[in-house]
Design goal:
heterodimer; B: mainly alpha; ABC transporter involved in vitamin B12 uptake, BtuC; 16 helices; 2 strands; about 70% helix; about 0% strand
Chain lengths: ~300, ~350
């Protein structure tokens, strides 16, 4: 991408000229990365919206989802699509089990206790991963259908990028419909608004919360599998950074708001990729960028871009 | 829930002071014996205990006593470790270590004694705490947790990238081995002394009020921001010193030493001890440090009656994280709750026991 062509529209970032082709290329990379952040952020935002709990373990749930898919193909020799589907379902189940085993018992405890529990669950998953799957990264199989590369002029588009965008749109629409068009979705929004009153109206809170965890974890697994195909390898600590960044995306978009999470994810992905493209010398600071953004949002617009609720 | 604090003069103050003095002397005598007769391994564990006491007691001040759930002790430990290491390394050594980019000017010539570097390390960490405090205390609760976690991560990323100051991912090697039992336990004692005195003062009362109900504390006229900031800075100071001691014990540091992993260890310690109890943090720092050495056997291959069980590396952390979750579900108070050690209680118990014993006869 280094060559500077005779482009009619030079984009100038800090005395470095990036031509339109390179810019488009980075835009595509940024959007597809942002889709993944968005998918993971959905789980954070739904759980936070309902329980006011930062589900620290969310990134690690995503990691376990990747391993499910990996072993589904390797040990049970399932075709890739079946393996991915089974992995997503199993991850949804894992999310429900974590809620049942760890979060439900501390639901009436002080919020900090719930947060410590979440940190504990996160570490438990990471270290169980290290013990069970081994610390060495494993190569993740990228099916044929996602491997093609199309070249438009100087812009190279990986099939995976196209699929990522399409699947993200599909999953997002599906979740959006559930939340805004179904009875269970209405119950979720009610709990987010006022948990006690919702309980008095005869809604089974535990069932709705479990369902929320299932949906969020499934979305994380889908995002995780696409993440694994993007950098085709997985390791037990892979969930930490995407998890944290997705949380930042959720706050950026306005926590508790699913569309906001998606928007925040896309923005974060774009900012990250464009910063690295514009200032390669700052590439090492890439992982600190998300937190810089987080601090700025909390200082200047704590409700996020689309949120209405003030954080405490 | 009572605040359990009395600012009235304790009638037994002189006796208690005397007891504290004697038992501290006794402790140092025992440590001296350990220093003389202990193996290198045992001494190292003792030093580790002291370093973790320093870090846990200071971490507990902000997390437990003040109730501000910070996740940044790794940042302060990193700052303290790097500052003190850069100050004690001789200019020659620094020149040899920094092979990619030479070290920046003032650092390339400065060379200070161990104690001075530790104090400066604490001060640099405290200053960073001061700077962080402004954005951090704009938010509360779990947002505060995630912002401080972010700072911890940022410090690590910066350490990885500022080649000419920290030597980047290569880290610093050949730091002089200064930390011995005297230094580590000495600083642990100083930390405990300062922080317990602070907690017993009116400042401590204000900090506890903030933990119980921040809005109410504000309503009775406590400047919550200043108090929180004060606790955070002091916690950073001692955390930085703890980091400096750690650096001069293991003699090789790199940014990867100060990940969230370190925070997690400290969190386990203060939660197990009881959030808010300095006594609990001290006991639990010792229990966790020694416990994690004892649990080492889980990770080594075992032979039980000819049966070979392969070692499972990483099992210790599985146990610790499980412990954390189970504690939150079943024993949220930890070992000590928010209670503190007091001679009065010990002596009351002893006299009660004695009376009980005499009555039986």
């Amino acid at each position: 991408m280094g060559a500077i062509s005779e482009s009619p529209l030079p984009f100038i970032f800090q005395d470095r000229i990036i031509d339109t082709a390179a810019f488009t290329q980075q835009l595509i990379n940024g959007v597809s990365l942002g889709c993944l952040y968005g998918l993971i952020a959905i789980g954070y935002t739904m759980v936070y919206g309902i329980l006011r709990l930062i589900n620290f373990a969310h990134g690690d749930v995503m990691m376990v989802g990747c391993y499910f898919a990996f072993y589904g193909m390797l040990l049970f020799t399932l075709p890739w699509w079946a393996s991915f589907l089974v992995a997503i379902l199993l991850t949804a189940l894992l999310g429900v089990l974590i809620d049942r085993g760890a979060y439900r018992p501390v639901r009436n405890a002080p919020r900090i206790s719930a947060l410590i529990t979440a940190i504990g669950v996160s570490f438990l998953l990471e270290n169980l991963g290290l013990v069970l799957f081994g610390g060495r990264p494993k190569a993740f199989y990228r099916p044929e259908i996602f491997s093609g590369i199309h070249t438009f002029g100087e812009v190279r588009v990986l099939d995976l990028h196209v699929w990522t965008a399409l699947l993200t749109l599909l999953i997002f629409t599906f979740i959006y419909q559930i939340i805004y068009k179904t009875r269970i979705g209405r119950a979720m929004r009610c709990i987010a608004h006022d948990m006690e009153t919702t309980r008095l109206m005869g809604v089974d809170l535990n069932r709705i919360i479990a369902f929320t965890f299932a949906i969020g974890s499934a979305a994380a697994a889908a995002g995780g599998i696409m993440w694994a195909m993007r950098y085709p390898q997985i390791n037990p600590l892979m969930g930490i950074l995407p998890g944290l960044k997705a949380f930042v995306a959720a706050v950026l978009g306005g926590i508790g708001n699913v569309s906001g999470a998606m928007l925040g994810g896309l923005l974060l992905g774009l900012i990250e990729i464009l910063l690295v493209a514009a200032r390669p010398d700052l590439a090492g600071y890439r992982d600190a960028l998300a937190f810089g953004i987080l601090i700025l949002i909390l200082l200047f617009r704590p409700t996020g871009l689309m949120g209405e609720r003030l954080p405490e | 829930m009572s605040l359990n604090v009395s600012i009235h003069a304790d009638p037994f103050r002189r006796r208690n002071r005397f007891l504290t003095f004697v038992s501290t002397g006794l402790l140092f005598f025992l440590l001296y014996i350990a220093h003389t007769f202990g193996t290198e391994y045992e001494i190292r564990i003792l030093i580790n205990c002291a370093i973790f006491i320093t870090m846990a007691v200071s971490y507990n001040l902000i997390n437990g006593v003040t109730g501000q759930f910070s996740l940044a002790p790794n940042a302060f430990a990193a700052i303290g470790a790097y500052t003190s290491a850069l100050l004690t390394m001789s200019p020659m050594e620094k020149q040899l270590s920094f092979i990619i980019e030479p070290v920046v000017w003032p650092l390339s010539v400065i060379h200070t004694p161990f104690l001075v570097s530790l104090v400066i390390a604490g001060m640099v960490a405290a200053f960073m705490g001061f700077l962080m405090g402004f954005p951090v205390f704009r938010v509360r609760g779990d947002y505060l947790a995630i912002v401080t976690l972010g700072f911890g991560e940022v410090v690590r990323v910066v350490a990885n990238n500022t080649q000419s100051i920290t030597n980047g991912p290569l880290g610093l090697k050949g730091i002089v081995h200064h930390t011995n039992i005297a230094w580590s336990w000495g600083f642990a004692m100083v930390t405990i002394f300062f922080i317990t005195r602070l907690i017993k003062s009116s400042y401590g009362l204000a900090l506890k009020a903030i933990r119980y109900d921040e809005s109410a504390a504000e309503a009775v006229g406590i400047d919550t921001f200043r108090h929180k900031m004060f606790a955070f800075i002091l916690s950073a100071f001692f955390g930085g010193i703890g980091g400096g001691l750690l650096a001069h014990l293991i003699t090789t540091i790199s940014p990867n030493l100060f990940t969230f992993f370190l925070t997690f260890n400290l969190l386990i310690i203060i939660v197990l001890g009881g959030l808010g109890s300095t006594t609990g943090s001290v006991i639990s720092a010792i229990v966790v440090t020694i416990g994690s050495e004892l649990l080492r056997f889980f990770e080594e291959p075992l032979f039980i009656g000819g049966l070979h069980i392969p070692g499972i590396p990483g099992m210790r952390m599985v146990i610790f994280s499980l412990l954390l979750v189970l504690m939150m579900i079943f024993a949220r108070q930890g070992l000590m709750g928010t209670r503190e050690f007091s001679w009065n209680r010990v002596i009351d118990r002893m006299t009660a026991f004695k009376r009980h014993w005499e009555n039986r006869k």
